[in-house]
Amino acid sequence: MTYTAGIDIGSTYSKAVILSAENEIVGRAMQPTGFKLAEVAERAFEKAVAESGVSKDDVRYVVATGFGRHQAGISDVQVTDLTAAARGAAHLFPQTRTILDVGGQTMKASRLGDGAKVKSFRLNDKCAAGTGAFLEKTARYMGYTTEEIGPLVAISKEAIPISGVCAVFAESEVINHLSQGAAPADIMHGAIVSLVGRSVQLMKRVRMEPEFTLIGGILRFRRMVDVVREELGAEVNVPEGDLVQFISALGAAILGQRRLRKLADERAGASV
């Protein structure tokens, strides 16, 4: 059987997916990105191959995506993360028209047309207050880890407003709320509401339309999904479990399968 791999070298984590010819995920892995991008690409790939149980020789095509895609020496081709995310999201949810992708260092909104092609997109990668790093920094300041954000915000009774449009000013608000005795859970809830407000504004700029699909590491927090749903006043698609973090890698692997089929057709045509 022929397999492909998609490697998403993100700013915070790098993910790899091994995909069968039937577009079934047979292996996946995630590694902290760090600064040695070529090495992390290989580690993620090798771990995904090990989980899949297939031979590396059976992985016939490797597609890299993400901000570090050009550093992945093991890849056959590179595609943008917008293109990869569109393919991955549309594979799971074929009627997807708007994608919100919230990662550690960037937030992206894109609107899709026919064939899962990106028609419009907007990025927020300049201010930390509009990315997942804002939530992680808020949690750390209050003495919590990133993994504790979900359980913490689940016990919130109300969201404490955080109106700062800059991460520095927002952090000052957090400090002020803590000094006044506000519950950390409510402050965390407020930080999520603030982040969602920015994400919805980004979606409006691409002229969003349903169906909406949410992806990226920060969307693994269920309260984040709930607040987005409430803000949009519409249902949203969310990949199950940690798959929400692998959508771009999945899309890259799908594009790899398409490329293999095209190459096979070209060879068949040449031999006629």
Q: Can you identify the CATH superfamily of the largest domain? A: ATPase, nucleotide binding domain
Class computed from helices, strands and strand pairing: alpha/beta
What is the second-level CATH architecture of the largest domain?
A: 2-Layer Sandwich
Sheet having the most strands: 5 strands, mixed
Helix count, DSSP H or I runs of 4 or more residues = 8
Question: Briefly, what CATH class of the largest domain?
Answer: Alpha Beta
The stretches of 5 or more residues where confidence is low (pLDDT under 50) are none
Count of distinct strands: 10
CATH topology of the largest domain: Nucleotidyltransferase, domain 5
Overall helicity: 40-55%
First CA to last CA: what distance? 24 Å
Radius of gyration: 20 Å
Write down the secondary-structure element order: EEEHEEHEEEHHHHEHEH
With strands numbered from the N-terminus, the spatial order across the biggest sheet is 3-2-1-4-5
Number of domains: 2
Could you characterize the architecture of this molecule?
The protein is of the alpha/beta class. It folds into two domains: 3-78 and 246-271, ATPase, nucleotide binding domain (Nucleotidyltransferase, domain 5, 2-Layer Sandwich), CATH 3.30.420.40; 95-239, Nucleotidyltransferase, domain 5, CATH 3.30.420.40. Helix content is 42%, strand content 20%. It has eight helices and ten strands. The strands form two sheets. The chain has a five-stranded mixed sheet with strand order 3-2-1-4-5. Strand 7 and strand 8 form a beta hairpin.
